[in-house]
Amino acid sequence: MANNYGLEIQKLLLQVGSSKDARKNIKLLKQGANLADASQDLDWGIDLRMRLINMESEIFECKESFPAFSWMLEKYNSNPDYFDDEDFLWFYNAMFSSCTTSVSISKEKMIEIVEDYKVKLVVAGYSLRSYYHLLALFYIRTKNFEKSLEVIDLAEATIIDALSGGSNQTWEKEMRVGNLLALDRLEEALVVIQPLFLVRDEYNLTASCAYIEIAFHYAKLREDEIAKEYLSTGLSLFDLGALYNTNYVVTTKAMLMYLLNRYDMEGAYSLFEELSRWGEEIEDFLFFFFAKFAAVIFKGGGKARLDLQPHLSIYQDTGEYDLHVLHEFYKTKAFELADQFDLRNGNTWQRDELERLLMN
To answer: Can you tell me the distance from the alpha carbon of 228 to that of 183, in angstroms, rounded to the nearest whole number?
Structure first.
């Protein structure tokens, strides 16, 4: 087998290429990585793990990605010249972002990781701007919004490089807006977000998400007429069918699901059906974000026919659903995750926000 491991890996990759089952393919890639390790083939070990991480990110899970990247990090530390620094640091950047979505990774561990990323940036000759991006994200996810704003100021004063340019500059503005809205500094947020309303990128993603975010904030304030104006503009730009899936798009769609339901507009249940297909094993933060809005849209009870996937624990083969049951299921899940995030973060922000959302 040792002499034929390359052929065996190629056969596994052919299976991956002919299958649309991401979870099956992840297992095949892991099997291939184990074959490479057994033959001490670093090239294949790196290649297969990069494929695995990319594939798992497409289904918003990180079960196999964390150990895969830990292996890569160990090899990078011992063989830095073997890697392309920029490629590796992009993976590191993405994996840290995933760390912030997990209830099981402590604040202390996240800081340790992001500081290691900083060291590697410096050694590789990059600026600290992408480090500040990750640090700002850490403070957003742990609900220290003032500190996140301070770090964004540091980022904007730092040289742009290959790891921090392009769409990351838009992300800086989006993070600033998110912090300001969380601090109820609406007028400041509206000033910062104005340029985002004018962006016409692919599918008008930036502008439509910006309008929907502001609409949601006005809905929280019960300024419903203003909220509906922003929502209407956002919907006129939003191409639901064409949009590719990223964390940002999924969370925006969950927010949109809530707004459509609040204002008795069509599409809330269709969005629920779409988002529920990702399952209950996706990254903690994404499932929490989805679950809290799902709990709200079903709190009125009633019955509905829904097209849900058999792998969901709430699945009914009749297609008929008691919405009160769905409300209780997602409310329970949301509160469980809210409490776990609050325990990790050392505050009560997520539970407080969830309670306000359910009462609004």
So the answer is: 22
